[in-house]
Amino acid sequence: MAVAAMTAARRRAGASAALGAFLVSATALAGADASATDAERLQVETLRAEIASQLQLQAYDLVDELVYGWTQRPPFGEPTPVLLADVSVPVGFGSGLQALLENHFASVILKNARSSVVLAHCPMCTQLVVHSGARGTVVARGIDAPETLAAAGGLSGSRHALFLDFEVEGSALVLRARITSLEKSLPIVFARTLSTSTASPALLRSPERLKSADEARQEYLDALQGRSPLSFPIRLGVRIYGRGNNQVLAPPFPWLSGGVEAALTQARAWTASFLVGGNWMPGLGYGLMGQARLNRLLTGEVASLTRPDLYAFVGLAVLSISGNAALTFRSDIPTLAELQAAALGTELHTAFGAVQLGLELRAKNRVGVGAMVEWLPTITGAPMIGDYWSLGPIHFQSFGAEVTFCF
Amino acid sequence: MDPITFVLVFFLPTLAGRATDPSPGFFHTKEEARTMECVRMSQTEVHEREPARVPEPPPRGARTPSDVLVCKRRYLSPGERPARDEGILSNLRAEVSAIVQAGSALGEPSTVWHVDAFYPEPAVAQKIAVAARTELVERGKKVSDQVPVLAAGDLSVLGHLLPQEQYPLACARAFAEGALAAQEALLGVMIVDAREAQLHAGVCLEGKWRWLR
Amino acid sequence: MSRHPLLAVAVVVALLPGCVTVYEPLLGLQRPVVVDMNAPNFEGQKILVRCLPNDHLSPQDMDILCSRTRGVLANQGAEVETSVPRRSGSRAADREEGAAPADLIIELSGRLLHEDNVPILWILSYLSLTLVPAITEFTFAQDVSIRDQEGSLLIADSLQGRIIQYFGAGVWAVNAALDMAVRKEDEKINEDVSKKDLSRDLFGQISQLAFHAKTRARVLRGFPPDAKAGAKTEPMLPVPPVPPPARPTPTETGKLRD
């Protein structure tokens, strides 16, 4: 089967015959009912809560969009009292969501007087009212019997009622808003349908400064395109070396480096950096370093504005260590002349190259934390330097952790 | 090379690369996959809509044109609502739009439209009626929030008839009783069989019932 | 065999099981189905099913599709004829002379929307002893159009799905472990389950669409009497049309209204 699978014929066979080959006969189809266990019910409840919270934000967006539309094209020529007659939530959702939406609508309307809609309170609108007269006895919801409500003084002077209907239609949340005039024939004087989808994140507009969805999107695009391709990272890191012979552990080497990082694409999927740095360890010496890295974004194709990005990198570094710390990296025994020179104050010195592999988590291209392993190809046989991890002929001898701040 | 290294270097990265794929497998269950609605679109089109999530396609001629699988998650998982209700509500806007487009061609510009929905679940019936009313108003029609009502006796008779007899008779009675005036039309939206998840519609105008779809 | 270790390895690799097939509904296939596919939904209906071959789907493939579709619809009480045109461009229904026209004509045709098969993955897979899985995927569309006996289009829809095949011992092992230890019965992923899921979805949607077409045809023809079922028919909806309870208006005669 495996050999046949690797022939070119599989390409066509897999594509073209799939539908027929994958269909089973009708008798083989069987449905099964599974009774939900307690754990499954709990899972469903948790999922419902998550859906409700996402739906709530999207519904707020729609309300914001509706009121924003009224500030641009008011439904009335002058401020007009309107009763909020009904807010109906999607089938299957409860009164909790209804209360949240009512409150949000009231909050947004109060902060946008330009909408010409003045919210009036009508507790009798949703209650049953009974009216007996010469024509008979009528039992109805208050809002459906406006004459009765007006006679009872329940309309609070308002002659219009607003209905907000939210419904989930597949992956879209749809708001249908209508304003009805409270006269006998109940004519609808305003209606609008707005929808959003799960693919669009909630805009979370401020109620005091509503803007249209197009304006919000343009701001977002400007933020994307306005990102400078260059940034200047400052990195604080530490390198730890593997235990050498006789379990001797070299001291950790801190490094402070700075340089420049450039985005190779607008999407910041590839970036490259060049940094120079140094360290100083009292009594042990000092070091200088130059390193270059190439970074590749792992979490998507475009660096995100709203969530951290994970990059993998490969790099090359050249390190120069001076002082007693240089002895850490020597594989040969110091000669008598070298020891004499050290005693007379002459500095020991060593330089070597390193190949780096690592990961860095970068938040909004401002702060990053990373970890890496280094291969020191020229450091072989140093008694104080052991291996952390071997990959065939490659021995990673150093493990580093770092924090980066970008400007 | 030790086995763990082998796995880390070769197997895990390939597996991790499938994390963003919505298909069921190691990272998504079948139920999660069924809550997604996915279509294939060109990368150019998707980049215009979502520049932060999809990079610009390569210059023409550099590579074969690529397409992107664009997925949207449904708000509700399969089984959250009854199948028929979910089928009707998922496609409500498109269905109502088609119905209103067909129905609004009838009548005069001065005709006042009433809408009523006939569906076993009252909550869903209300949604259908609201959708139709809103659509009619957005198309510039005069719409009333009122619903013409027949006498209880009429309703009990109508309840024993087949749909093909119910609606024409109800229309005639509403006109005769004055519940529907000459310049008024009633758009009725309903299902005619409990096994379907599509909407039918008809218009009652001047006492005559016309089926739209 | 021991003198040729590479050959031995190649044979072992060739004989290893290692295919995991995943089916993903994309558009339309995951819609809820209301009709019960074991009920006589099409009692007395004559249905012609035409499966149209093309460059990607041979007449033999469409024979299988038509045969399975016939089984599903016949199970629901329909008299089903199938037709798979052999000549390109042929769209005329293959019916016997004098035969009664079909009440519904269902046309099924498929399209390949996308295909992905990277050769380098196969090479890597072989070099890594199939630890790196080779991945083949394709996206298909099953177009369904249903017409009445006069040829008027009643329903047209496109059902889209995706099949992904992972080949590799590593993937197979991990998937098998997940199936055994973690996944519930209806969540398991293998070729048999994928076939069953796709069949259930596809035939469920075809049945639902056909039922929609049937009722739409009845409505548009003004509910003609069903001669095959006899003169007596029952109301299709058990609940009479009741107006919404919230909006009564007073009558001139003063009677109380519901």
Distance between the termini of chain B: 70 Å
Distance between the termini of chain C: 90 Å
**What is the strand arrangement across the widest sheet of chain B?**
4-3-5-6-7
- Number of extended strands of chain B: 7
Multimeric state of these chains? heterotrimer
Q: What proportion of the residues of chain C form beta strands (DSSP E)? A: 25-35%
- Based on Cα principal axes, name the global outline of chain C: elongated
Stretches of chain C where pLDDT is under 50 for at least 5 consecutive residues are 227-258
The fold-level CATH name of the largest domain in chain B is Rossmann fold
Number of helices of chain C: 5
**Order of SSEs of chain B:** HHEHEHHEHEHHEEE
Strand order of the largest sheet of chain C: 1-6-5-4-2-3
- Mean pLDDT of chain B, to the nearest integer, reads 85
Q: With helices defined by DSSP (H or I, 4 residues minimum), what is the helix count of chain B? A: 8
The radius of gyration of chain C is 26 Å
Biggest chain pair interface: B-C, 69 and 66 residues
- Major sheet of chain B: 5 strands, mixed
CATH class category of the largest domain in chain B:
Alpha Beta
Strand content of chain B: 15-25%
